Structures
1.
Amino acid sequence: MKTMTCKDMGGACDQKFQANSFEEIAEMSKKHGMEMFQKGDKAHLKAMLKMRELMKSPEDMQAWFDTKRKEFEALP
């Protein structure tokens, strides 16, 4: 079981996510982001705007995912 935070995943807070795979962590982070979006949390909305810009380039988005996956895999 590995742990990453919302901030580790490009978000805005220290909410912790624990999972056995990067895909699980990414899904938890996405769900958390949607909850914060629905609540209108300004810090998370700002982080989402940055992610939206990143998504405009499939290559940049893939590079981001690859980097985050490596960070996850490097965790104890």
2.
Amino acid sequence: MNDEPLDSDLDVQTLLVHAGNARRNLRSTALSIYPSTSFIADSPEQLDDIMAERVHGYSYARHSNPTVDGLTDAVKRLEQAETVIATGSGMAAIDAALFATGLRMGDTVLLSRDLYGASLNLVGKVWSQYGIEFVVVDLTDLQTVETTLKQLRPKVMLFETVSNPLLKVVDAPALVKMAHEVSCQVIVDSTFTTPLMTRPLTFGADLVVHSATKYLGGHGDAMGGIVAAGNAKYHDALHQYLKLRGGVLGPFEAWLIHRGLQTLAVRFERQCANAWELATRLEETGRLRAVYHPFLASHPTVETAKRLLPKNLGGAVVTLELDGGRREAYQFLKALKVVRPATTVGDVYTLCLYPLVASHRNQTEEERLSMGITEGTVRLAVGLEHPDDIYADIVQAVEAAVRV
């Protein structure tokens, strides 16, 4: 196919359509953005081969895109995966992972009691309509987990490496081993830990998901999800999900998330250091009912965290339990000046979320209390500001909440 620039004597209407689109022999240092929704093959035979996946190539953006492939290639190396897809959101990634396991009517999914609320709702309110059963279990209780696995023999187990929002660390390698003994596939949501803290595929997890909206992107300007599989057998199902359900990631979002990956290490290490300093200082004030951080001696899963997580990376989230209830929590949120009340994690800013109205608003009060989430629970996603400024802002907001 001729890649030379078009003749300038063509009609202006033709030039408007085609000018500037000639392919050039360039090797840019940054990942390029390919916004095209379709791609031209050199011949009908080549297009046939591409569509049949006999050769690698591009035909339609719902099937694949060069910019998105740049992102998935990077994550494949980071997670030591056999195959990786990128989706339009973290929830789409969880949905794709469930799809890839081959769930059928009558199958059972074992869910961590401490999952993100929307993940619980996805299985409990969407997949259950297809005849999928689900059971919710405290996965920190390994004896109960083992008994449940042997009795129910579920097809899939889904849990987070560090739970949202109370930061419970499960013994993920032990859970994977027990699940595989009954032929149960394991999906691990590693959003809070990133590949810097743990890589679940290396200890046998079948599928790992990330909300790339969070730490991978890192700047609060791109929504996306990742599914990484440890076995190539998941390749076809994952790609069929994208082709048929269409939950693809756009090239601009892929480019932003890939750019975020390049600074993930320096960002996340600083955020983790800030979170640890903040947690220890806030606990020392004695002004809060509880402070949650995986490495605090007061945390119920601290020994598991010390055994499984890197010593200098305990995560960048700190959760607080304020004195009082919803009224005090609202006042706390209103009083924040540096910290921003927003419903996500992983941004460069420190953000604060109230689970009762955001992450776990669709759970019943009984369900929330069984997780340990009260009306005084607020979650801090610690950013890159100076820790003194974050600390001072939280302390003054706590004092404002007490005065209401």
3.
Amino acid sequence: MPYLNWRKSSYSEADGNCLEVAHCTSGKISVRDSKLGDSSPILDFSPREWFAFSQAVRSRTLHR
């Protein structure tokens, strides 16, 4: 996989346990586990899939 610029949420736990997200030149959005770093499995989403996923997470978070 080509070099990706991984970004971690500003809401990340102090111990670093969080997801990291990278936008690929192919248009895909890649997600990995920050505590595993480069050895983490990577999930790839299309922009449409990422939008649906992030909306579902936001909705779930707001309704707690």
4.
Amino acid sequence: MFDELRKRYPKFGFSLYALEPGRAVTLEVLTDDGELFSFKGDTQETAIRRAFPKDFPEPTPEPTPDVTTSVFD
């Protein structure tokens, strides 16, 4: 996902790091006009999705079959 992000935005600078074991991952984005943005998440995937929700939307969970689900739906 990180490499895909770099391909999509070649003019941006990116830093992805976790300083404390078991703690949040930080994604920093330096835009081509010099603005710096910071996003945190439990994983790199979460941080990237917070920074670029339109490019990397949250996956929708598969519905869990239950007694009301028809095999013919």
